[in-house]
Design a protein that fits this description.
Elements: E1 7-11, H1 16-32, E2 37-43, H2 47-50, E3 58-62, H3 64-67, H4 73-90, E4 94-97, H5 102-110, E5 115-119, E6 132-134, H6 142-152, E7 179-182, H7 195-204, E8 208-211, H8 218-227, E9 232-234, H9 241-250, E10 254-257, H10 260-267, E11 272-276, H11 281-284, E12 292-295, H12 312-315, H13 319-331
Parallel strand pairs: 1-2, 1-4, 2-3, 4-5, 5-6, 7-8, 7-10, 8-9, 10-11, 11-12
Helix pairs in contact: 1-6, 1-10, 7-8, 7-13
Membrane topology: Peripheral membrane protein
Protein name: Lipopolysaccharide heptosyltransferase 1
Main location: membrane
Length: 332
């Protein structure tokens, strides 16, 4: 179906993990149809990951976080009007919405492409904006779901790759060797592993550690740094996405809950120790072989709730459990 397509618009504004997963779709399309020009709509906060990407011809940014505030309604309307004109002028042959939410579906419709594609099972009635709907089970891993869309357009999947832009190695990284990366928090309160558990596992394992995160993680990361007495160093809130790529590539492996940064580490070729409680590794676990998934076995897991009063599923994954599993994993 893509043989005669000259220009494709990919709508995937967020979040980090979803964007990384969508790189597999990008790679499949370009491997099968290298002459297609691909434009990508992305949220400003993740623009860096796609800027100067060798397979992307144009990056279009949107300020989706501003859209959430009703006080910004006038600016939001103005931005959508501007976006509509910009997209219509591009004359896309096809627009593919891999986000599957109302706003991404609406953007897909604004593009005025003759073919507007997305998932039949998309949420928030976004499928109403599509004239080509692809049905894939929501229990399928996100990467494989996106590749099913590529197959629906005639792509043959020879391999699964997550092509990244050129990393930028920060000066401070030269000081680190033989280290493990720790990702201490996620956007979902329910997915967070207790802070004392991170401190304990750092003390138990025979490695130095690098703690990464956003600015909102700085305080907790600093506590880990303090209580581990030199075994861990925090750069939370001080790195760009391209610097994180460099850090991941240099690391031994990564210990993390279910978070978007975990998927970036996997895209960098790193093995991860992934801690799963309220979410399903079948849907959003680290893609590929060789990773260690430590999962809660409680009957309420996975619940897919963003907030939990007692976080029992994450608390039952104790540092001793993780230590034992890591020792076994490293021995294989």
């Amino acid at each position: 179906m893509l043989e005669r397509v000259k220009k494709l618009l990919l709508v995937k504004p967020s979040s980090l993990g979803d964007i990384v997963h969508s790189l597999a779709f990008l790679n499949a399309v370009k491997e099968n149809f290298p002459d297609i020009k691909i434009h990508w709509i992305v949220s400003k906060e993740f623009e860096e990951l796609l800027t100067e990407h060798p397979l992307i011809d144009k990056v279009i940014t949107v300020d989706k976080n501003r859209w959430k505030d009703i006080k910004n309604i006038a600016l939001t309307v103005k931005e959508f009007q501007s976006l509509r004109e910009k997209l219509k002028n591009e004359k896309y042959d096809i627009t593919v919405d891999l986000q599957g939410l109302f706003r991404s579906g609406f953007i897909t419709w604004l593009s005025a492409s003759p073919v507007r594609a997305g998932f039949k099972e998309a949420r928030e009635f976004s499928s109403c904006f599509y004239n080509k709907k692809i049905s894939v089970s929501v229990d399928t891993h996100a990467v494989l779901r996106y590749l099913e869309v590529a197959k629906a357009f005639g792509c043959k999947i020879n391999s699964v790759k997550f092509p990244l832009p050129q990393e930028k190695e920060p000066d401070w990284l030269s000081e680190f060797n033989d280290f493990v990366v720790i990702i201490p928090s996620t956007r979902w309160q329910s997915k967070n592993w207790p802070l004392p558990y991170f401190i304990e596992i750092i003390k138990m394992l025979p490695y130095n550690f690098l703690i990464i995160g956003s600015k909102s993680d700085e305080a907790e990361a600093f506590k880990i740094e303090q209580y581990t007495k030199g075994k861990a160093r925090s750069v939370a809130g001080k790195t760009t996405l391209k610097e994180l790529i460099a850090a991941f590539k240099k690391s031994l492996f990564v210990i993390t809950p279910d978070t978007g940064t975990m998927h970036l580490a996997v895209a960098c070729g790193k093995k991860v120790v992934a801690l799963f409680g309220p979410t399903s590794p079948q849907r959003t676990g680290p893609f590929g072989q060789g990773h260690l998934i430590v999962k809660s076995e409680l009957p309420c897991s996975p619940c897919f709730r963003r907030h939990c009063r007692d976080q029992k599923c994450m608390r039952e994954i104790t540092p001793q459990v993780v230590y034992n599993r890591v020792v076994e994993w490293m021995a294989t």
